[in-house]
Amino acid sequence: MSADRIKGAKGTGGLSRRGALIGAASLAGLGLTKAALAKPLAEVLSTKKLRAGINPTLVPFGVFNQQNQIDGFDADIAREIARQMRVELEIVQVGSPDRIPFLQADRIDIVLGAITRTVERALVIDYTIPLHTQSVVILTKQSGTAVPIAKPADLDNPAVRLVQVRGTVGIPWIQANAPKAQVTLLDNYPDTFRALQQGRADAMVDVLESIVVPMKNVAGVQWKVLDEVLASTWVGIGVQKGNTTLKDVLNIVLFEMHRSGFVGKTWEKWFGVPMKTPVPMNPMF
After folding, report:
1. Residue 223's Cα: distance from chain center in Å?
2. DSSP label of 116
3. What sequence ranges are listed for the domain Solute-binding protein family 3/N-terminal (predicted)?
4. What is the dihedral of CA 154, 150, 234, 180, to 10 degrees?
5. What pLDDT does residue 230 have?
6. Taking residues 99-125, what's their average pLDDT?
7. Cα(277)–Cα(135) distance, rounded to whole angstroms?
8. Percent helix, strand, coil in the chain (nearest 5)?
9. pLDDT for residue 215
10. Containing H/E element for 60?
11. CA 214, CA 94: separation in Å to the nearest integer?
12. Distances from the Cα of 159 to the Cαs of 174, 180, 193, 202, 223, in angstroms?
């Protein structure tokens, strides 16, 4: 915590000894130290720099461009946030496992990268209002399969062959809703799409945003995504627990980015299709 921030707390007459002890205990419970406290909004504005963690392996949320710089949907969103806040943007590369630890260690001010809202995460970080959604859908081939697949219930058939990437969200859905189907688990998306392309599988269940790019990369196949969304998840921008000053401003900025159409246009720029489950406009947050 900076000296200015301590003075600010005293200046408002606010921080009692008991309150300080409770705060310290809370921070200890979160595994944070004073040195790891996030910069409050005032420090972001005074340094004129916003540090955004983006994962360049989650294409097209994050991707390395030809100049070996991080680009993608998340990078465009972070640039617009920085522009509206009139600060410089610093993009910090993060991976899926270290997205939240980087935030907790104050190595970044915000984190993007498909941070789905979960109760477990909400115990250790704070979220902005939703930036986007992710939709679980069924992918099959336009040319048809041995067993016609026109609706989710058609998957619950012993003749249907599903192929899935290990550990993805489609697997528990299949276990609960299509237990009769044959299921082959593979390690990655290229192998999964190859199985579908070669007719060794009929369909897969996955997040649309994870398969939209691999679909384009497989030539010679007319794909079909069923209209029905099996489940939707909500994705916000993460800030350090308790950093309400920054979160409050981000909520206003995100609301305006949704209202102006910036989020939707940026989504279609990178994904090539509209967001399957739109984020409803709600100014109350």
Report:
1. 25
2. B
3. 49-274
4. 10
5. 96
6. 93
7. 6
8. 40, 20, 40
9. 86
10. none
11. 22
12. 14, 8, 19, 10, 20
Residue 10 scores a pLDDT above 90: no
Closest CA to 62 of 108, 115, 106, 105: 115
Distance CA 114, CA 119 (A): 15
Judge contact between 208 and 89, C-beta under 8 A: no
- CATH architecture of the domain with residue range 41-134+234-271: 3-Layer(aba) Sandwich (3.40)
Q: Identify whether the C-beta of residue 83 lies closer than 8 Å to the C-beta of residue 269.
A: no
Q: Mind listing the pLDDT tens digit for each residue in 41-65?
A: 998 999 999 999 999 888 899 999 9
Output DSSP code: residue 146. Answer: S
**135-231, superfamily in CATH?**
Periplasmic binding protein-like II (3.40.190.10)
Domain with CATH 3.40.190.10 in the chain: 41-134+234-271, 135-231
Q: Quote the DSSP letter at residue 72.
A: S
Report CA dihedral (79, 119, 284, 26) to the nearest 10 degrees.
Answer: -90
Q: Rounded to two decimals, what is the model's pTM? A: 0.76
| Cα end-to-end distance, the chain, whole Å | 27
For residue 133, which phi and psi values (nearest 5 degrees)? -120, 170
The two tokens of residue 9 are 């707390």
